[in-house]
Amino acid sequence: MTKKTVGYVHLEWECPSCGTRNKGVDKMCRSCGAAQPDDVQFEQVAQEALIQDEKLIAQAKAGPDVHCPFCGTRNPATADQCSQCLADLSDAKAREAGQMVGAHQKSAVPDVACSFCGAMNAGTALHCVHCGAALPKQNRPEKAPQPQAKRAAGMSKTARYVLFGILGLVAIACIAIIILSSRTEEVVGEVQGVSWEYSVLIEALVPVEAQEWRDELPDDAEILSCRQALRRTQQNPAPGAQEVCGTPYTVDTGTGVGEVVQDCVYEIYDELCTYTELQWRDFDLVTLTGDDFAPEWPNPTLAQDQRFGAETEAYEVYFNADGRSYTYRPDDFNEYSQFETGSRWILEVNALNNVRSVTPDR
Ligand SMILES: [Zn+2]
Ligand SMILES: [Zn+2]
Ligand SMILES: [Zn+2]
After folding, report:
1. What is the torsional sign of CA 205, 207, 210, 212?
2. Quick one: fold of 182-204+283-360?
3. Helix (H) / strand (E) containing 103
4. I need a labelling partner for 356 at 20 to 30 A (CA). Which of 238, 241, 269, 287 fits?
5. Residue 107 C-alpha to ligand 3 middle, in angstroms?
6. Model's pTM, two decimal places?
7. Ligand 2 being an ion, which residues bring their Cβ within 5 A of it?
């Protein structure tokens, strides 16, 4: 993030002894003469006009004011001697600076009535123009513009109960399946028949639409169209970048003058292109089946821009055991070829009627 200075504005402080509001640049209370203590913070004025006085701006840039270690009086950072007691200021403590005092107040504020004499005064006035009484502080808007943070939406209580309920049921179902499938019994089965299924995938080279930045396009890309799009956002300025700035806010410089700043980021736009390129995609699945021990791979003729993809083989053996049917799926042809019709096998069957393993019945 780059901090940009919008300008400088006056701040104010409230005298803790008499409650009078004083200009930020005033180091002593205009009403009772007390020096501003170092723990009395500067506040925003109701309407912040940008300061034109170059000398004042230079003072604000010079660094936070310091408090005399002997009498406590506020002195500019550039002073060597206390303006009040002439003490040496080389060990003086600098005021706290850099903290945000609030969102920049640009808009005009309504006039206020003096509570003593009733005279109308400008909303920014500290003292009544008619009787000199201190004027009350105007309502200030909320402090500090918060950076926008997206808060994750919380789940409602009901939704949480329903979710826990569903998770519980799923867990019970899983446990039931594990129990049912792990309990097995042995039956003797006779092979009734077999079947095999051999498949081969045909892939075809087809044009596929895709998007890519112009400098990252594949060599064989056929460009359809390009447009400007946001490629990335960076913290520092760059030629051609689009500056995006947040709400201006006022920062305490420790001098009674506030610096109005803006946090900015820089958006880099680039050419995003839609193009087509040739990619291998699934085109067709060719399958041969049979119920013998001589399986064959399908061998279709390929067109131009086609190739064979993945091959799959599957086998099934059908058993009859005391009038019940069971299906067993051997892993490979070697195993499959042993299941002659009429041969007898011991089947390990679980409660879900799945055949877990098969051994010859000797
Ligand atoms: Zn005072
Ligand atoms: Zn002093
Ligand atoms: Zn008045």
Report:
1. positive
2. OB fold (Dihydrolipoamide Acetyltransferase, E2P) (2.40.50)
3. strand 100-103
4. 287
5. 25
6. 0.59
7. 68, 70-71, 73, 82, 84-85, 87
